[in-house]
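Backbone shape codes:
===
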Amino acid sequence: MTVTDADFEDPAFKAQLEALRQHYLEGLPVRRTAFIEAWHGCVDGGGEAAWLSLRDAAHKLSGSAPCYGLEALGVAARELDKLLSGNAPSRTRAQVAGVVARVQGLLDAAVAPG
């Protein structure tokens, strides 16, 4: 199925998109909790599992958030994903703390009531 510009004007299509967006936003608190728990598990010189969990959470947010109108969250999560990936991934809290705080702040704002 190909989506056309005309589809975006169709009320039923718009309603479907809004329902998907609401469903995503309703699940965001769980993603936020997983992100924070992964961050708390990251210790300098610690095990790789928590760092990979944080990277995975950032990667998923970087791809999904912009699709639901959360562009700034996607950009910040992409920045974190890049820091945690690649040939020389960051594995110290000081290197990533600022970006983590920005992602968390944007998550907090997205899940805040109203």
